[in-house]
Structures
1.
Amino acid sequence: MQRDRHRRSRRLILLCAGLFLLLLGTAAPASAHAALRTTDPADGTLLRTAPRHITLTFTESVGLLTDTFRVYDPTNHRLRTGPAEHAPGRSDTARVSLPGKLARGTYTVAWRVVSADSHPVSGALTFSVGTRTATAASPAPDDPENPATAALYNIARYLAYLCLALLLGTAAFVAYCRPPTAAPLRVPALAAAWTLLATTAALYLLRAPYEEGTAPALSLRSLTHTATTRPGGLLLARLALLLLAAAAVALLRARRRRLPRRTTLAVAGAVSLPLALTWTAADHASAGVQVPLAITAGTLHLLAMGTWLGGLAALLRTLPRTSPTTLARFSRLAFASVTVLVVTGVYQSWRGLGSWQALTDTTYGRTLLAKLAAVTALLLAAACSRTWTTRLTRAPRVAVARVPEPATVPSLPLPPERPTPPPPPPFHTLRRSVLAEAAVGVLVLALTTLLTSTVPGRAATDAARTGTPTTGIPTASVTTIPFDVGTPGGHGKVQITLDPGRVGRTSVQAVVYGPDGGLSTVPELRVTLTLPARHLGPLDTRVTDRGGYWSTDSFDLPLPGTWTMKATVRVSELDQVTVSAPVRVTR
């Protein structure tokens, strides 16, 4: 019976860990932490003269790559530009020099940088010199990440978080709670340590392909470049700390010495603090407002999280052999960890949100609400575990019994009986409570790591005020529709560009290509847009012939959604055709 309970406990722990990895391993990759604030020239701008530089300004400092900028001319050929650099004294900018002479037409710029919290950010913009022309350039795909690289990097990252929690919690449990035997914790601790070492090495090897958005590959140049970046340096520091800790443990085991409790706590703290810093110094805390205080709060939050959740795993592993003294110590340790988590969590939430409105209007805020709900459930489970722990560690009271007296002696008043306290609950009841607490804790840990992959509400709101999208996708929408009027030479295609392809004032350019793929002149072209979901339209764009292409600069898109774009092409006095295609309009 006891073995069955242990087997079920292990299966539940493995199930929770599997769900954690499944949730995080399939999560969308982090793609926009530093939000684009402004661009010079602005997206979709028509300029009289060619600019000398392209400058992007972000909400936080950014790192530059060897291929940060790709600029394409109106014929879809890549321009030779100078190296990417920061504007003087501005680490939150990225700038590139353009050639001295630029032809008239529309240029497309694709960019990719690394935000201060170590996540790559990418996007695209367009600008025109002298006149707007249609362009088929598509240098920024919908998914700027390589799927294999992103999946491997995310799995390694989340495994590292889980192993860190197990290591921190086990070390704190052994050092402070002093279980009667630590032998059952040796195997999981070693497994977590080796897994953390392997995932850290994998993160370092995948760092350059992750930043560039390329397939996994190894090269001496990429490894050397990674070592010069802040995320790469922190990963190397983490590797060094883990190797030093492994050497210290091996030395102590060789001497077979049992260190005093204070010494063990000091050694565990000396390793845990810098180890946690390798995470927080490359996360949201490293950018934004109050960076030193944010890194301090983030480090304490991470240590408290690992102490609590990892300690729960250690308690489950040793629960059948745990003494009441160990339970009492863990109860105090868990209460202190919860206090630190609440205080630092409130500060981090305020810093990340920036306003109450961001709590419901941003992805970061909605994820935070889900985490708060999970934390509430976790605190309730922890309260139940603390109640059972208190009953187990409480010394039983002895009831006062009545003494029988001879019948000839008058009865004397006796002190009132004290009720006998209920017996302490069995260990399997506490185990169920701790299992529930651990299961909810895994969910909290998953939501916490998802928050690190989400644009902070403060940055998203700041970018929204300037009208700059935070998604990092191209704002221009290009739609190509083939047509055939059924006569010889009466087929081709019409290419229609909405710049930008979002709600509000937009420009519409249309170019007609003939059967040979060259530009074709047609007597008449009409472009309309209809939104079937709202029964809106058709709205006539009123494009006019500009000598080789059709255009208008004053068309308003009132609502987002999937619109139906219809183009009526007349190739002669008698022959015309109407063709259509869906087009997505964003906010």
2.
Amino acid sequence: MSAPDERGALTPRPSLYDYALGLHRAEPDGRLPEGGYPLPVQPPRPEQRSPRGWRKTSEALADALTPLLADPDTTRAADEVHRRLRELDAREHHVRRVVPDLPLVDEAAARALGRRLTRTGTSAEAVGAGLRLLARLGEPEDIPYLRTLGLLRDFMGTAVQALTPLDRPTAALVWLTGRARNRELRPLVDALAAHDDKAVRATLVAMNLHPRALGPETARRIAEAMGLVDILCADPVDAAVLAQAARLLSRMTSQRDYRPEILSYEQAVSAYEAVVTRASLLSPTLDHCATLLSLALDLHSGPSRLLPWPPGRREALLDILESVLHSPEWSAVADHEPDDPDDQHRTHWIRRTARQPFSARPGSSRLQVEVAVRDPADPDCAETRFLIDGRPLVPEAFGRGPGNSPEYLLDSGRLRATPEPREVQLAEAYCTEGCCGALHVTVQRDGDHVVWRDWRRTASGRRGQPHLPAYRFDATAYDAEITRAEHDHSWAWPARITARLLAAGLRDRPELLTRWDARFGWVGTDFHDPDTTVLSFTFRPGLATGRQDTNGAWLQFLWRLPDDGTPPDLRAAAALRLLETTDPKTFALVGGGSREYAKELGFPWPEGGRG
């Protein structure tokens, strides 16, 4: 007779697919779980007898799995996968690293093994291996199994990856299920799961699609899950649904999720067609005006320009948007001065930006440079955009963040070409260069030409990106375009102009800060309050005399200058005069550095700050 522990080990465990299916069948009305189901408690792992490092375990796992992919006996191969995973003590991160790169000598056998593992696998690692095989080899018959396994929290991401090429609406629904704890998304997920088209439309209309409430990927997944284009192509189209569709499309153009989601939305061209050709059905409100102008700006010089447009169709849609936005009823929207500060910011942005998407520059050089500022309702940076032969460079060549600020690239003169080569960072990942990389290029004058060459994409920003050739520009045309861009400040608002003038003054007179043992950091506008200019500087004792300890304590200070209605040139001049006579540490606030050093000097530490 077996001991209790031995009987538990001999008892067949149900597959994880059957476990997920059973949980879902127990849900009332087929409701999808909030955030997904947890995995069942897994049996304890045996002690590892020969400890390996991460790399050696991955290499051993690849050697063990490769021959099993060609085994025609999938039952035997699946059992062997389970055994080898246990033997090697392989974890999820090993499977994630190894399986996507395994060579596929016999795709049919590998597909059969993937199906066997997903449908009968009893360990998370074995099922994960099967899901990753089907992410490469899956077919429509696998959809129900992938959908069910995607209800398990730990498998959602991989299931979505496998479902995406097979059934985007189902992939999107699984993705949304993982976020169904969100009060806005729960009703939509329930309506989609119930296949209630009327409820889906009603839920869409009721959703809060404000930029601060909805991320770009969530917007894409909603559009995919509900079949947005099919809804828009139905006649008649409800104006409230049309407005929400325009907001979803606009959210997808944001670069706050690194790669613009609009480029991952397979039906983006059809969605643009459906929204723009019906734009005149919308009422001329501030929000509708800002949304349509955002779409136009992206069609003009943003990622949407890279979509697979039929010849002339993108330009035709821009013509439609121009006729709507510049009609008397819509133009009047920006003539009114609202009382609400947020509405004021949007109104002023519309006034500054109204002509930009529709202003072609015939005869310009093959390089075009412009500054784009998004709708203030979607707080983001002012970005420098580059069109080379009519194609947006940064989203196509990098795609992990927008172009750098005009202050960094244009005001500094970094893009000016000289015989001496200069490497310039054109864009940085939304997180930071150290995390997901940046895009660099070397700029050099070569006789009658300016050359952009030796492209460098750091960190993971270089993965899966196209090769970049050396671009040669006519030097006269290049100089003219850079000079024009440097002097075009039509995009800037008073606080941003103040920041630019303050930065220029500090570049010309760095001693205004160094005399106070301070080094200039950056100057811009507050992310949440665009009417406030912010100057950052770093305090290091001894900097004025050149004796600072580079490894010693330091403090970052932030000087905020709210817009008081004074013209920007006067505000910047007054700030520079103040620095001539007064230590800025006496009126700026600590923003970072050493908490202990701040305490030692008597400066309050910022609430929620690190150090």
3.
Amino acid sequence: MFKPKSFIPALFALALVAGPAHAAGNLVAVLEAEIVTLDPHFSTAYISRTFGYMVFDTLFAKDSKGEIKPQMVQDWKVSPDGLTYSFTLRDGLKWHDGQPVTAADCVASLRRWGSRSALGRRIFAITASLEPTDAKTFVLTLKEPSGLVIDALGNPVSPVAFMMPERIAKTPGDQRITEIVGSGPFVYSKADHRTGDRMILKKFADYVPRPEPADFLAGGKRVNVDTLEIRVIPDGATAASALQAGEVDFMQYAPFDLLPTLEKNSRVKLLNFTGGNMFAGAYRLNAASKPFDDPAIRRVLWKLVDQREVLDALGLDAKYATPCATFFTCGTTYDSKAGTEAAAKPSIEAARAALKATKYAGEPVIVMEANDLEAPRVSAQVLAERLKQAGFNVDLQVMDWASVLARRAKKEGWSVYGVHAGGFDLGSPLTNVMVAFNCADFTGWQCDARITPLMEAFAKAPAEEDRKKIAAEIQTVMYDQAPGIPWGQFAQPALYRATLRNLIPSAIPVFWNVEK
């Protein structure tokens, strides 16, 4: 989540004096939060996904063009009827305990992942069998064709389909694994893990990278440092000062209020993001409770929400933020303009006129403001003021984010809240929370009978072009129903020492390929 930290002058001043460099073989990073859950299947937390990509590996992976490429898989083939997939693993794959990676390991891992992932559940709902045929080959047989198998296996939406040894993968999905053994480029060192202070990941000497160059999450994961030290520094200004002093090499989220100063410092560099590497923000509406149980009243917000105003209120420079009308993340595969005419030229006057044409009877609009997260807090404040100006009866209620999550699970007691999520997670109808849980959702209680068959058609469509057309149809319905209103897309840039080279531009921090 977006948490810009306040400026601390005394600490920042220390960064003007270069500190002692640490060993070249040790890269020190500060991530968005402490890594608490080490089981990447168990949690959807982004920080657990980051840990997963370091320690575990995937059968397929997404490259910078958004294409899914083989990773642990060497070869695969699909039968002419689209029902049978045969996968053969690469040579030389080993677990961190020295044992070879087998097809049985991958089968067990996929079954565990399938019990935790929305994409996985869709694949396993149409799976007739999934079995190893020899040490390196396994076969997936479907009951009906689907164009999503390879995409699901390589999709970075959390929880990711990370592979584990069979004995570990047999742990039920609702229980955390207790032994951390992957086959990825870094090895987790339990002996060096100090909770609240630091975690040590060591280069896996026996890792065999793919021959291709590294490309986002795909390609050859060549590690050029001996250890990756992940420090726990909760305050952003403190972490930025440590980085400028040479005590830290990489910081996942540079504090927004420090960006103007950081941009002038020749010792550091900022890594901006676009497309799926950005965050996408939206207002989630309660379709089960008045007044937003009426889609006509929900549609008034298309006239009301000015995305540029929200982004400006967050203090974001245009190079870090952009309005985005699509539900499926601008710059990603299913980015579409379908239906977006409804959101053109928002104004208080237009919203006021649209509201008068509805059956709105002055019911209170309860806006939940999360006061411990900057983007949800500011976006809620902006919306509350514009709702008042348009003629709504507004009740702005301030609470922490945990209380927002608890309240939204109920059909009464709230009307709208601001939220944001990773662009990759919102980039597909099957993973976008405003769409994927239609008629079964506790984040907005939205149900539209038109969405369900479109989702089924999307999942079954064999070609990407067909899926793009269906996604556009889904978005048209979403604009008509307005279960959520996008309020903009933004990036929180990473900060790193200028001494680092070949850092992969990724909002999911990865530390292969980088040199120090």
